[in-house]
């Protein structure tokens, strides 16, 4: 369909021209949007993680003030070693009711392990063994701090996390740690707020985890993340592994999560569940020695790539819909606008089949096609005229070719028969035709076996009329040669008769006339405006028979002063028309008189016939395929003895 429709081809070309830069722009925008989304995500998870860490840290100073007041009010640093633990539990219960939504517990730390609750505001907690030994040891070492531990809940039949903020009770006598007094936030709203993220079921939401200082994840919004660690476990951290495996029913892997980029003190990328995650460890929580845990936030990196791809697909889907819409419009427009072009195609097919009388009809909305159709109609009209003209010219050419053939036949018929060689001389002639009707003749006549007359006639024009003029001059020469013996008399009477026959028409012919006396070996010759003949002596010398006579038919009464030359045995006489000298090749060079002389002098020949054959061969090699306007006639006579 696209190949047959010009508008659709234009649309396709425009689409390709626009799609390439759009593709480049989309790719650049895709990269920018992707990296920008990653940076925005980093800023978001940093803000959320830092905010959550700050919320945790704001609780610690408040609770530490409460614990200091309790130690002072109950005088625990003086009385703890001698107090009744049940009385202490009752006092803690009263204080917890006054503080509101808190639990107070006292943990015996005189033995390194286990750490058990010896008094508490909640009776069910008394006797419970705390599991976060490392966290407790850190609080003991610092004198105060925070940690998270797990307590059994009968309501859920499981362990729930509690935020514990503690302070060491020192003996007033020995200044050694006696116990830890801890306050808890029972509902732990901050942790509940973090864990509410898992209820959304949104995989792109920011996930959180709580890490101990050794990098072990003991709380997480994603249960699969629980028990992982982002740093190699130390020997101290290994003590907590059993606790996690028993209480939380998780398996702690031997190897930490692979870090692919960054450091744990800032943003870093790690692999979790076969996906690259962008993680952030809150600096606020990490920098405080009082807090025994760190807030860790992370989000899958691929969601930003997916968002960028989604935008990329939406962009190209929109572009495709628009393109399909305009393709549809272009298709129907091409069907409508293309009617003139289809009509023109049908007309051209009819012409190709031979119907030259079909014509293009104007169409509405044809515009340039109508103009093209008008030009096509004019072309057909001109072609018909040219066909008619070509037919007429072909008829004329055929008629002319018949005339040429007829003229050539007539011309050949009037050439003399072959001369019979004798012991005295050899004589032969040659005719080389041209593309036009020839007007050149050669002839000889033997009288009384004593003399032989020779003539070469050349009319300046070509065609049937010129051929007849030359033929008339030839006949006059033969007639007067029979009557008269003297060369001058023959020339005079022939010229007079030719002038009288032609009248004032201005027709003339050129001729070279010669009479050879066998007895005396004398050659009498006269050139009537003709190219001179040549004599090649036996020793190779060339003699040009120059003569300045006037052409026949120009002046009726003119003197004819003939010239004479004595020929010797083995001498060669060569008479030729100007068609030989004026022959041209493809380089517009003439055959020239010098070439004739060189052929006579430098070639080996034994007879006049061999001389003419040699000249003919050289002639055709010279002109090659170049057409010639003038024919060539030659006579060669050789004296033998």
Summarize the structure.
The protein has about 650 residues and is an alpha+beta fold. It contains 15 helices and 21 strands. The strands form four sheets. Strands 7-6-11-10-9-8 form a six-stranded antiparallel beta sheet. Strands 2-1-5-4-3 form a five-stranded antiparallel beta sheet, with helices on both faces.
What structural category arises from helix and sheet content?
alpha+beta
The proportion of strand residues reads 15-25%
Query: Average pLDDT, to the nearest integer?
Result: 80
Q: Given the structure, what is the number of helices?
A: 15
The largest sheet is: 6 strands, antiparallel
Ranges where pLDDT stays below 50 over 5 or more residues in a row are: 197-201
Q: What sort of overall outline do the alpha carbons produce when their principal axes are compared?
A: rod-shaped
- Tell how many strands the DSSP assignment holds: 21
What is the strand arrangement across the widest sheet? 7-6-11-10-9-8
Cα-atom radius of gyration: 65 Å
């Amino acid at each position: 369909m696209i190949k047959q429709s010009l508008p659709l081809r234009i649309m396709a070309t425009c689409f390709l021209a626009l799609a390439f830069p759009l593709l480049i722009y989309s790719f650049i925008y895709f990269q920018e949007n992707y990296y920008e989304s990653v940076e925005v995500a980093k800023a978001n998870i940093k803000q959320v993680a830092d905010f959550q860490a700050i919320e945790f840290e704001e609780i610690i100073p408040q609770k530490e003030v409460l614990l200091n007041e309790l130690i002072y009010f109950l005088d625990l640093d003086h009385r703890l070693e001698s107090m009744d633990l049940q009385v202490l539990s009752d006092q803690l219960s009263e204080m917890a009711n006054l503080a509101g939504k808190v639990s107070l517990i006292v943990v015996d730390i005189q033995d390194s392990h286990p750490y058990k609750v010896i008094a508490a505001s909640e009776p069910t907690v008394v006797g419970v063994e705390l599991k976060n030994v490392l966290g407790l040891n850190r609080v003991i070492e610092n004198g105060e701090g925070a940690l998270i531990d797990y307590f059994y809940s009968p309501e859920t039949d499981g362990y729930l996390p509690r935020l514990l903020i503690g302070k060491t009770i020192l003996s007033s006598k020995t200044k050694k740690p006696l116990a830890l007094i801890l306050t808890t936030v029972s509902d732990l709203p901050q942790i509940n707020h973090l864990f509410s993220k898992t209820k959304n079921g949104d995989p792109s939401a920011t996930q959180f985890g709580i890490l101990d200082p050794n990098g072990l994840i003991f709380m997480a919004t994603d249960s699969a993340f629980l028990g992982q660690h982002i740093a190699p476990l130390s020997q101290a951290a290994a003590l907590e592994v059993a606790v996690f495996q028993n209480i939380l029913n998780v398996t702690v892997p031997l190897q930490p999560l692979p870090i692919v980029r960054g450091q744990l003190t800032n943003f870093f990328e790690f692999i979790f569940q076969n996906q690259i995650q962008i993680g952030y460890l809150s600096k606020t929580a990490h920098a405080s020695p009082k807090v025994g845990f760190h807030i860790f936030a992370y989000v899958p990196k691929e969601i930003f790539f997916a968002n960028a791809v989604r935008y990329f697909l939406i962009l190209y889907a929109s572009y495709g819909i628009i393109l399909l819409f305009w393709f549809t419009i272009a298709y129907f427009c091409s069907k409508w606008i293309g009617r003139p072009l289809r009509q023109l195609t049908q007309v051209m097919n009819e012409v190709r089949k031979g119907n030259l009388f079909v014509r293009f009809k104007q169409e509405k909305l044809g515009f340039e096609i109508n103009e093209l159709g008008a030009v096509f109609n004019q072309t057909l009209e001109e072609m018909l005229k040219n066909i008619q003209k070509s037919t007429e010219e072909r008829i004329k050419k055929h008629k002319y070719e018949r005339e040429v053939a007829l003229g050539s036949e007539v011309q050949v018929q009037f050439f003399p028969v072959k001369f019979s060689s004798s012991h005295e001389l050899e004589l032969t002639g040659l005719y080389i035709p041209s593309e036009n009707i020839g007007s050149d003749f050669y002839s000889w006549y033997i009288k009384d076996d004593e003399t032989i007359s020779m003539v070469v006639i050349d009319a300046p024009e070509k065609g049937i009329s010129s051929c007849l003029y030359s033929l008339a001059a030839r006949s006059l020469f033969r007639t007067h040669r029979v009557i008269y013996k003297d060369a001058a008399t023959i020339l005079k009477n022939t010229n007079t008769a030719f002038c009288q026959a032609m009248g004032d028409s201005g027709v003339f012919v050129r001729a070279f006339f010669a009479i050879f006396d066998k007895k005396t070996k004398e050659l009498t010759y006269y050139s009537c405006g003709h190219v001179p003949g040549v004599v090649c002596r036996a020793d190779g010398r060339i003699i040009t028979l120059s003569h300045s006579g006037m052409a026949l038919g120009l002046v009726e009464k003119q003197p004819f002063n003939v010239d004479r030359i004595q020929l010797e045995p083995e001498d060669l006489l060569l008479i030729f028309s100007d068609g030989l000298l004026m022959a041209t090749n493809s380089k517009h060079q003439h055959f020239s008189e010098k070439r004739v002389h060189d052929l006579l002098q430098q070639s080996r020949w034994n007879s006049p016939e061999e001389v003419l054959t040699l000249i003919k061969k050289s002639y055709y090699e010279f002109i090659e395929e170049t057409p010639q306007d003038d024919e060539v006639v030659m006579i060669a006579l050789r004296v033998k003895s």
